[in-house]
Design brief:
Structural class: alpha/beta
Mean pLDDT: 93
Strand content: 5-15%
Distance between the termini: 58 Å
Number of helices: 18
Radius of gyration: 27 Å
Low-confidence stretches: none
Largest sheet: 5 strands, parallel
Helix content: 40-55%
Length: 573
C-alpha cells in the first residue's frame, strides 16, 4: 500500500500565529491527512516549530528572557493551540532538537564534500548602535522591487522577491530602530544553487500536476535576470545550529550558525527521527519515510505552505537534497496558498488588527473557524476574512443545513417512535434516488480531496448535507405519520443513517463536531470510508438507541458580529 508523508510549513516560534497561518499550512494539511487515513493509507503527518534565526532572538529580547527558555515556552503554547484546533499531527517537534543539529551538520558536510558550498566574502550591514551585524530580519526597509516599506532583509513579504539586507532602501535596525548603519565585510558559507539550476529545472518540469501558484513562483526564482543566485547558509548570530564543528575545514566560522532557511526544511526529516527516537523505535521506522533505498520509493510526499515559503521548498531545500548526493525523498506535490486578509487589510500583531489563533478559540468552537477557513481557502487568490461572511457561512452551512437536519430528525424520531431507531420496510424510490444523488457528490468529494482542492471539497460536502435536507423536506415524515406510519418510520431510519454518514465524511473538516455526533448517537467509529453508500446507509436498524442532542451550532448574532468587528479592528475605542 502506498504511504503518504505530509509536512506542514514550520510556524515561527516568535509568537502566536494568526488565522492566515492556520489556513496557510496546518489546517489544510490536517484535512488531507485525516482524509487519506480514512481511505486506508498509512500516513505520517509531521510539523515542528521553526526556532532559529532572528524572529526567535528578537521575541526573546522583547520579553527579556533567554532565547532557549522563550522557545521552550512558545513550543508548548503552539502545541496546545494546534491540539485545540484538532490538528492531528503524528508528531510536532522542534527545529532546535538534537536530531536537527546532527542532520543539518550532516547535510552541510555532504554538500562541502560534493563542492556545493564555498566561502564567500560579502558586505553586510553593521549597526553602530547595536554593535553587531544585522542579518536578514534584524533589518527592515523599503523593497527596491515593489516599494513595500516593511520589507525584511531576506525577502519581501508583499512581492516575495528574494533580498539581501544591503538591497533595502532606507534600512533600519529592527532591534533599536537606529539608522546609524554602515557596510562591513564578513565571511559566510554559500550553497552554490546556481550549479544545480539545470537539475532543478528538469525536476520541476516533471511536476505537471503542481498548482499554478507553486510552479509560477518556482520558475520566477529560476528565471530571474541574474539567474539562480547562490544563497548564504550561515549568519553572524548566537542562536542556531553552530558551524564550529567544522573549524578544521572552515576556520573563522566558530561563532557563526547555520541560516534558519537552511536548517528549517531539514527539520522535517529530523522531526520524523525525533518521533522515532521518542517512541524508542529502530532507525528503519523513520528512514522508510525519507530514504528511497530504505522504502521511501513507495511514499507520496506532500507539502503544505503559504506562498512566501514556496521558494525555499521548490528551490533551496531540493538543491540541498540533490547536492548531498544521497537517496533522500524529494517532494511529490506542493500545495501553496495565497494570503488570508482581514477586513480588507493585513493581520498585524503590533496594531492588534485581526484574530489570532488563541483569541479565536475564546470566541467560538474550533470547528466554526475550521469550516469558514476551509470553505474560503485562499487557493487561487487572496481571501478576505470579514465578520459578515463568517456569520453568514456559520449560520447557513453549519446551523441551518447540518445542525438543523440532525436536530429535526432526532427530535421527531424520539417524540414519535421512542429512543430506538425503528425497524421498518426497505427503502423506496425516493430513498434510492437520494442515494444516487449522494453517491455523485460523495465521489466528487473523494476526487477533489485526492487532488487537494480544498474549497471545492467543501462545496461537495455542503452538497451532501443539502441533499439530506432536500430529501427530508420532500419525504415529510410528519405529514404522513397518521396515514402511513411505517413509511414515516422508514424515512426516519434513512435520515438517521444519513446522520451517521455525515459524521464520517465531515470528520476531516469538523472533527470535534463529528465526534460529538458519534458519541451522542452511539455510532461506531468507522476508520475507512465506504465503497458502497447503498450498503452503508442500511447500517443502522432496529434497537439502536438515540436521544435528542443539544444544539450543535449556536448561531452568531448581529450583536456579536458588530462587537467583534470593533474589538479586532485595531482601532482604539
Amino acid at each position: 500500500m502506498e504511504r503518504i508523508l505530509i509536512t506542514s510549513a514550520l510556524p515561527y516560534i516568535n509568537g502566536v500565529k494568526h488565522l492566515g497561518n492556520l489556513i496557510g499550512s496546518q489546517l489544510p494539511s490536517d484535512v488531507y491527512a485525516r482524509f487519506m487515513r480514512s481511505l486506508g493509507f498509512e500516513v505520517m503527518f509531521i510539523c515542528a516549530t521553526d526556532e532559529h534565526g532572528t524572529p526567535a532572538e528578537l521575541a526573546a529580547i522583547s520579553k527579556n528572557i533567554p532565547v532557549k527558555d522563550f522557545c521552550e515556552e512558545m513550543w508548548s503554547l503552539q502545541k496546545k493551540i494546534a491540539d485545540n484546533f484538532h490538528i492531528s499531527f503524528d508528531y510536532f517537534g522542534r527545529s532546535s532538537s538534537q536530531q536537527n543539529h546532527q542532520l543539518t551538520q550532516h547535510f552541510a558536510t555532504k554538500l562541502w564534500e560534493n563542492s556545493f558550498i564555498e566561502e564567500v566574502e560579502e558586505k553586510q550591514v553593521y549597526s553602530l548602535a547595536d554593535n553587531r551585524f544585522l542579518p536578514d530580519r534584524y533589518i527592515t526597509g523599503t523593497c527596491p522591487a515593489c516599494g513595500y516599506e516593511k520589507a525584511r532583509g531576506d525577502q519581501c513579504e508583499l512581492c516575495t522577491k528574494q533580498l539581501e539586507p544591503t538591497d533595502l532602501i532606507n534600512p533600519k535596525s529592527t532591534i533599536s530602530g537606529s539608522q546609524s548603519l554602515e557596510i562591513r565585510t564578513t565571511k559566510n558559507l554559500f550553497l552554490k544553487q546556481s550549479l544545480l539550476k539545470e537539475k532543478l529545472e528538469k525536476w520541476i518540469e516533471t511536476k505537471e500536476g503542481w498548482p499554478v501558484l507553486t510552479k509560477s513562483i518556482a520558475k520566477k526564482w529560476l528565471n530571474t535576470k541574474e539567474g539562480l543566485k547562490d544563497r548564504g547558509i550561515t549568519r553572524d548570530l548566537s542562536w542556531g545550529i553552530p558551524v564550529k564543528k567544522y573549524e578544521d575545514i572552515w576556520p573563522g566560522f566558530e561563532d557563526k550558525v547555520f541560516y534558519v532557511w537552511f536548517d528549517a526544511p531539514i527539520a522535517y526529516i529530523a522531526t520524523t527521527k525525533e518521533w522515532s527516537d521518542k517512541n524508542k523505535l529502530p532507525d528503519t521506522s523513520w528512514k522508510r519515510w525519507w530514504l528511497t533505498d530504505e522504502g521511501a520509493e513507495n511514499v507520496s510526499y506532500v507539502q503544505f505552505m503559504a506562498k512566501d515559503n514556496i521558494p525555499f521548498h521548490t528551490i533551496s531545500f531540493p538543491a540541498t537534497i540533490f547536492g548531498s548526493g544521497e537517496n533522500w525523498k524529494q517532494v511529490d506535490f506542493i500545495k501553496g496558498f495565497n494570503w488570508l486578509l482581514y477586513e480588507g487589510g493585513k493581520f498585524s500583531t503590533s496594531e492588534q488588527r485581526g484574530i489570532f489563533m488563541d483569541q479565536a478559540l475564546d470566541l467560538y468552537p474550533a470547528d466554526y473557524w475550521r469550516w469558514w477557513l476551509l470553505a474560503n481557502a485562499p487557493e487561487s487568490s487572496d481571501t478576505d476574512f470579514t465578520w459578515e461572511s463568517f456569520q453568514s457561512t456559520i449560520n447557513k452551512d453549519l446551523a441551518d443545513v447540518l445542525g438543523n437536519f440532525i436536530s429535526r430528525v432526532a427530535s421527531f424520531s424520539v417524540s414519535k417512535f421512542g429512543n430506538v431507531i425503528p425497524d421498518t420496510q426497505i427503502y423506496g424510490q425516493l430513498e434510492k434516488e437520494t442515494i444516487k444523488k449522494l453517491d455523485y457528490h460523495y465521489k466528487c468529494l473523494k476526487d477533489l480531496m485526492q487532488n487537494i482542492e480544498i474549497r471545492k471539497s467543501c462545496n461537495a460536502l455542503r452538497s451532501i448535507w443539502v441533499t439530506g435536507n432536500e430529501y427530508l423536506q420532500k419525504a415529510a415524515p410528519w405529514s404522513i405519520l397518521k396515514e402511513n406510519p411505517e413509511r414515516s418510520k422508514m424515512i426516519i431510519r434513512f435520515s438517521l443513517n444519513l446522520i451517521n454518514l455525515y459524521s464520517l465524511v465531515s470528520e476531516p473538516f469538523i472533527p470535534f463536531t463529528c465526534g460529538k455526533i458519534r458519541n451522542h448517537f452511539q455510532f461506531s467509529k468507522v476508520t475507512k470510508w465506504p465503497e458502497n453508500l447503498d450498503s452503508f446507509l442500511n447500517t443502522l436498524g432496529d434497537g439502536h438507541k438515540i436521544c435528542v442532542p443539544d444544539i450543535l451550532f449556536q448561531k452568531i448574532t448581529d450583536e456579536e458580529r458588530i462587537r467583534y468587528q470593533q474589538t479586532f479592528s485595531g482601532i482604539s475605542p
